[in-house]
């Protein structure tokens, strides 16, 4: 891969991993639109590692608190352990889906037109989440994650193994639909991404080890760009959701999906 491809794909991965517009979908469609080959599996792993570092850096203080709580220290160890338990619980559905169906859904990475269709599905999820959130908050106060709500969020995350369906979009929408405030739902979604990204990296390591992958300058550049842009996306979205809804991202997908599909079909 050359420098331009690595930097562009690193930027795409970093931004779209956390914005509710599907990183997997953009990593399929963008190279197809630009006439590039799909990036190798090992490079995809490097980009995911960059975004993993981004989310760990963004939540470094909370993660330290959780670590202290796990060993019985900190201001409220019980609350810390409860949150860790919820994060593990929320990761189970996606873990099961990945093990049972991951190889089947991987075929869609070679079908950019299908991805455009799933972008429309993501838009529907975002708009549906906002609609249900508005109805919920008319008669009831905001809620917080508990076991039942976390399982629903976890199932939404499992659905997002499909390329084109945004993981953050599905999980945040599932949260706000159950009365969780947008910023808190986003924070929970980002924390929930840590075990999922770790799992995705772990499953790809054997393929990378058995391949002929070299760490080159462009690869390092993609890693750095993915990490920095991922951190910016996290901080920007959290700030945005304090006073705004997810609708703008749904409208973006409803515009980009048909345009991309038409261009791909013409090519």
How would you describe this structure to a colleague?
This protein is globular. The protein is 79% helix and 0% strand. The model has no long low-confidence stretch (mean pLDDT 92). By secondary structure, the protein is mainly α. It starts with a helix and ends with a helix. It contains eleven helices and no strands. The longest helix has 29 residues, at 77-105. The protein has one domain.
- Count up the helices: 11
What percentage of residues falls in helices of 4 or more residues? over 70%
Number of domains: 1
Radius of gyration: 18 Å
Mean pLDDT over the full residue set: 92
Q: Categorize the overall geometry.
A: globular
Backbone structural class: mainly alpha
How far apart are the first and last residues' alpha carbons, in Å? 22 Å
> Uncertain runs with pLDDT below 50, 5 residues or more?
none
Taking the sheet with the most strands, its summary is: none
DSSP E strands, number: 0
Note the beta-strand portion.
under 5%
Order of helices and strands, N to C? HHHHHHHHHHH
């Amino acid at each position: 891969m050359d420098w331009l491809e690595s930097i562009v794909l690193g930027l795409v991965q970093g931004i779209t991993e956390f914005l509710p517009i599907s990183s997997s979908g953009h990593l399929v469609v963008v190279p197809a639109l630009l006439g590039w080959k799909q990036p190798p599996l090992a490079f995809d792993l490097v980009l995911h590692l960059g975004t993993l570092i981004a989310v760990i850096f963004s939540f470094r203080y909370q993660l330290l608190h959780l670590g202290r709580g796990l060993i019985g220290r900190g201001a409220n160890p019980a609350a810390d352990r409860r949150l860790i338990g919820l994060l593990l619980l929320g990761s189970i559905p996606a873990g099961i889906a990945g093990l049972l169906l991951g190889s089947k859904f991987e075929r869609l990475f070679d079908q950019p037109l299908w991805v455009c269709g799933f972008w429309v599905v993501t838009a529907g999820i975002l708009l549906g989440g906002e609609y249900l959130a508005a109805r919920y908050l008319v008669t009831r106060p905001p809620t917080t994650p508990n076991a039942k709500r976390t399982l629903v969020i976890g199932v939404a995350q499992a659905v997002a193994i499909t390329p084109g369906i945004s993981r953050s979009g599905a999980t945040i929408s599932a949260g706000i639909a159950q009365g969780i405030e947008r910023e808190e739902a986003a924070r929970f979604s980002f924390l929930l991404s840590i075990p999922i990204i770790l799992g995705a990296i772990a499953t790809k390591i054997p393929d990378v080890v058995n391949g002929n992958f070299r760490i080159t300058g462009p690869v390092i550049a993609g890693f750095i760009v993915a990490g920095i842009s991922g951190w910016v996306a996290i901080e920007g979205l959290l700030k945005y959701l304090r006073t705004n809804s997810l609708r703008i991202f749904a409208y973006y997908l409803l515009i980009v999906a048909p345009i991309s599909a038409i261009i791909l079909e013409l090519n």
